[in-house]
C-alpha cells in the first residue's frame, strides 16, 4: 500500500513534515501567512544553491521488486541456501509479520532459515541464539507487536573480535545470507560486516577456526535490509515498518483526550516520539485539528510564545472548549534549544491561566497490535527480501527493500543511509531548509496544508481577483474519512477567499434546497468523526433528474461541484459530463474525490475509507481467530463487503493470516473448494488447529457463504467444525484511520486548487464559467506515487461497468502470496495459464 502524501515519482522518499517557514502564523491578527507559497520554494532554492548537502539531493536509484512475478515462483528452487534473520535497534509493530514472511517464503523456496535472537548480540554469542526456524515457528504472530526474536544493543559487535565471532557462528551454520530489520545504525553495521567479510574469513582460516573449504563455499556475504522505525525517518522508502501503527496509537490517544479536554475546557500538550524527525507529530496534527505543532525540522521563529498564547486565547473567545498542542520529543527553537512539553505547559498556565495538562505517550507508541498496513508492509517487504537474497551475486551491493507507492523496490543500502545521515548533519548545523529538502519534495506540501487548515480564520481580503462559489456533496455509501475531506475543502476554499457551500443528503438534498454556506468554525473537529456529517445517498444524478440538477446548480450559481463518494459519484459525474451539451449548467469543474470502502472507483488505487474498513475487518478476524483457537478444530468463513471488488477480502486475508480468500476476480470451482477442504484437513494435524476463510460478498452467485460453510461442515465431519460470520455494515463504521484522515485532507485541498485553476481559465467577464473540456470532469486519485486527475471520459474504457470496478487492479498481483504463506498446495489454473507454465510443483 501507499501511505500518506507520497507524491514524488522519481525518488522514493519518506513522507515527513516540515518547511522551515513559520508553522504557527495561522491567525491574521497574529501573523500573516503568505498567500503565494511559491516564495517559500524560491527562498529555499536560493538559500541551498551552494549547500554542501547538494550532493545528497535527487533520486535514489530503485529497482522494481519481484511481486508481479510471484505467480511463476516454483517451490524448492534454492535447496542449497541458508539465511539468517535478526531484528536490531528499537522494536516496531510490523516486525513480526516481516519475520513470518521471510521464514515462510524462505522455506517455500527450499532454504534453511535461522532465527538470530537478540540482534547483533545473538550473532556474536552464537550457540542457542542461532536456531533453525520452522513453518510453525511463525504461526500466530501476525497480530503480535514487537519482535518474537528479540532485539538488543551489542557493544561486542562494534569491535573486530566480536565480528570475528559473528562470522564464525554464521559459517558454522552455513549461513551467508542475512536479512537485517532495523534502523540506519543497524543497517550500517550490517554493511560494515559485509565489507570486512573477506578479511574476517582469512583470519579465521589462519587461526584454523574455519576450514578453507568452508571459507571458499561461503566466500560471499549477501545483505538485505528492512527498515523498522516508528519515526519514518529513513530516506529511500515512503514508509518504514511500524510508523503507521504508531500513528494509530497516537491518534487513538488524541481522540480519547479530546473528550475529556472538552468536558473540562482544558488544554493538552501531547508529546510524541520523534527525536530527529517530526513525521508522527505533523501527521497527527494534520488529522486531529491540533491548534499547534512543534517539530524539529521546522523550529518556530523568535516570539512564538506570544503567537501561541494569542492563538489559544482567540480560539476560546470563539467558543472552542479545548486546545490540543502536539510536540515531537526532539522539538527545538531556531537556536537549537529544546522545547519541552513541561515548558509549553508552564507558558500556557502562567500567561493564560488555562487548566493545562501534559500527556507523554512514550513507549505506548511502539506497542499494541500492528495495523493492517504494517502487517501488509512487513509481509511484502519480507517476501521481497528473500527473493533479493536468492538473486544476489558476488558483485551485488546490499539493498534495502522499500515501498514506493504500491510497489516494493530495492534501493542501494548505503545511498539511503548516507542521505538519512545527511539530514541529521544538516539539522545539527542548523541548516533546516537543507534538511527539509533532503527529506523529500512532499515536506513543504504537508506543512503548508497544515498551516492553511489550522488558521484561526481565513483572510478577510484575498489576493484573488474574484471569489467563486464552490459546492461539496457526498454521494454513495458511508466511508470513514469523508468528513476530513469536507473540512479540508471548506477551509482551503475559504483560505483562497471563495464562498464554500455544503449540500446535505446527496443529490436529493440539492433538489430540496438543503444547501448551506459553511464558515471556518462550522467544520471544527470534523476530521476525527466517522460516517458522513453531510449525509449521503446512493441515488445517481440521472435518477434524481439531470434537468432538475442543472436548474439547481444554475439557481445557486455554483462555479464548481466537488463530489465525494464511491462508484455512484464517478458515474454521476460521467452522466453530467455527457449531458453538458443539453444542460450548460454542467459546464463547470466536476471533480470526484473517491470515498468508498469497496475501493472500486476507477482512476485511483486507493479510496478514502478503505483503510479504515480494512483495519476494522482485521481486528474482527483477530478476535474470531481467538474464538477458533479456544474452540479447537474450528473453521470460520467470514464475508466482507465490497460488491464485486475483492480488495477487502484479499488484503484482509493477507493481513490476518487467512487460509484463503474467495473473490469474483479470480473464479473458483467446486474442485477448488474441495482442495481447500483437503488443505484444512491437513492443517488440523498440526499444532494450530483453526482455520480462516474470507469471502467477498459477490464472489460467486452459487457458492455463497452459507454454501461454503455447509460444505465444510459436511466434508470436515470428525475433523473440524465450521461457522460463518457476515460482517455487514460494521465495516463502514468506526473512527477514521490516520491514513484516511490525512489522505482525505490532502485530496480535498488538491481538488479545490484544481477546480479554482479551471474556473480562472474559463471565467467570462460577466461572471459565468464555461468548462466544456474533458479535463474539467475528472476523478482525483492516487496512482502509484502521484495524486492525478483523470478524465471520466478516458476512464470509461478502463472500467468494468457491469461489475462497477476498474478493469486493472494493482492488488491482484498479491494473490499468489496469500496461498504461499498459507502453505496451500493448490495453484489455480488461471495462474499457470497467465505465467505460460505447464507445471509448477506446489506439493508440500
Automatic annotation (TrEMBL):
Keywords: Allosteric enzyme, ATP-binding, Cytoplasm, Glycolysis, Kinase, Magnesium, Metal-binding, Nucleotide-binding, Transferase
Positions that bind beta-D-fructose 2,6-bisphosphate: 538, 634, 641-643, 697, 723, 729-732, 804
GO molecular function: 6-phosphofructokinase activity; AMP binding; ATP binding; fructose-6-phosphate binding; identical protein binding; metal ion binding; monosaccharide binding
Any one GO CC term of the record: 6-phosphofructokinase complex
UniProt feature, compositional bias: Acidic residues: 17-30
Primary location group: cytoplasm
UniProt key word Cell inner membrane: no
Keyword Mitochondrion listed: no
SUPFAM superfamilies, sorted: Phosphofructokinase
Recorded catalytic activity of this chain's protein: beta-D-fructose 6-phosphate + ATP = beta-D-fructose 1,6-bisphosphate + ADP + H(+)
Assembly information from the UniProt record: Homotetramer.
Functional summary from the UniProt entry: Catalyzes the phosphorylation of D-fructose 6-phosphate to fructose 1,6-bisphosphate by ATP, the first committing step of glycolysis.
Identification of the protein by name: ATP-dependent 6-phosphofructokinase
Organism listed in the record: Adineta steineri
